[in-house]
């Protein structure tokens, strides 16, 4: 692995800046290509076909409620603590589980269930219990020791007692949004949480036997400095979670209303953002974490690091995963499902979602059915994002095409990205990205994307 200093010396800032604006490729095509005229019958057919598939299935449940409004947020979420509203939503989720499970049936084994948000821990433990029991009744869940059951939790809304209750319900993976522990940054993003609280919950999670703990960090936030972020990293390496995700904050106030509360003048300049990212990389790898794909880090004995070692890392809507099956069944407002080559996304508006489910209708609002060419490109993009390499012969064989010949044009574009082949090697056999080109994976992947307009140079 090359050092960060080498990376800065070899890769022009202009390329790194372009990369920060590229999609994260949790699917191909990305959700921006989904179409509102997607026929529900396509979903129904995909679900029925999927019932015969032997690959394991993942489930995603979206909980949109949050206690307050973090200014950097780009998620689909609703600021509300109203227990009646939350209870009503849980009932709707149960109805959606009934509708979707009736199509797939109990043949496919579910090996992964993830609660995301919003803030999943807006739900009380009994509500998680109700949802899990409905899922268990209607789908075939793997036995507890083989089921990955995870939740993104807001530390501000959790106590050690909650953590113990989640564990008793079967949760075995937990992710805490830490972002940055610096006071000034926390005030600027309207998310004040003490390091002591995160530490208390981390200890509680370890005591009750959570198998894996993740911290999310964000760089590029207002008022963020190298010195302050270094203190955050001191805290992280001291707590030693199994995984750390280091995400870039994309300031898009025209798209996300909450971000309009951020004074753009307080955002770190590009040079500082890149330095923050490099600092995280240097500190985490120096402390024994392995760099995983684009923006994750994991301790060597964590399943993600081991999967990367076996070249068995995959990508789904939640990011990097060890699950080989791509199919995900999404529940809740804005949740995305992938069944075979069919993507579908639920209504993004809560009222529209609740109305559809109240009328026992699938709450699907948009979707997309991959063509054979999309599936081929998706395979290449996943290989770039997960392995940092592409073998055209292997991929061509899977799709019964001559991939090297098909991607002649892309090869020329890749040469333009790195004419001197310092970090990117692209020829008719495939692609190899050196370790210090890791932060450009999305830009390489984007070369194969026929749906997303290129970010300006
Ligand atoms: S960042 Fe997370 S907790 Fe904050 S508003 Fe967004 S979804 Fe809610």
From TrEMBL:
InterPro entries listed in its UniProt record: Coprogen_oxidase_HemN, Coproporphyrinogen-III_oxidase, Elp3/MiaA/NifB-like_rSAM, rSAM, rSAM_horseshoe, rSAM_sf
Residues bound to S-adenosyl-L-methionine 2: 72-74, 118-119, 179, 191, 216, 250
Family as reported in the entry's similarity comment: Belongs to the anaerobic coproporphyrinogen-III oxidase family.
Main localization (coarse): cytoplasm
Listed name of the protein: Coproporphyrinogen-III oxidase
Catalytic activity line of the entry: coproporphyrinogen III + 2 S-adenosyl-L-methionine = protoporphyrinogen IX + 2 5'-deoxyadenosine + 2 L-methionine + 2 CO2
The protein's role, per its UniProt record: Involved in the heme biosynthesis. Catalyzes the anaerobic oxidative decarboxylation of propionate groups of rings A and B of coproporphyrinogen III to yield the vinyl groups in protoporphyrinogen IX.
Subunit (UniProt): Monomer.
Cofactor comment text: Binds 1 [4Fe-4S] cluster. The cluster is coordinated with 3 cysteines and an exchangeable S-adenosyl-L-methionine.
Taxon lineage: Bacteria, Pseudomonadati, Pseudomonadota, Gammaproteobacteria, Nevskiales
Pathway stated in the Swiss-Prot or TrEMBL entry: Porphyrin-containing compound metabolism; protoporphyrin-IX biosynthesis; protoporphyrinogen-IX from coproporphyrinogen-III (AdoMet route): step 1/1
Top EC group: oxidoreductase
Biological process annotations from GO: protoporphyrinogen IX biosynthetic process
Start and end residues of each Radical SAM core domain: 51-277
Compartments where found: Cytoplasm
Organism: Hydrocarboniphaga effusa AP103
Molecular function via GO: 4 iron, 4 sulfur cluster binding; coproporphyrinogen dehydrogenase activity; coproporphyrinogen oxidase activity; metal ion binding
Enzyme Commission designation: 1.3.98.3
Family matches, as Gene3D superfamilies: 1.10.10.920, tm_1862 like domain
Taxonomic superkingdom: Bacteria
Pfam families (alphabetical): Radical_SAM (PF04055)
Residues that span the membrane, as ranges: none
Cofactors demanded by this protein: [4Fe-4S] cluster
Claim: Metal-binding is one of the keywords in the record: yes
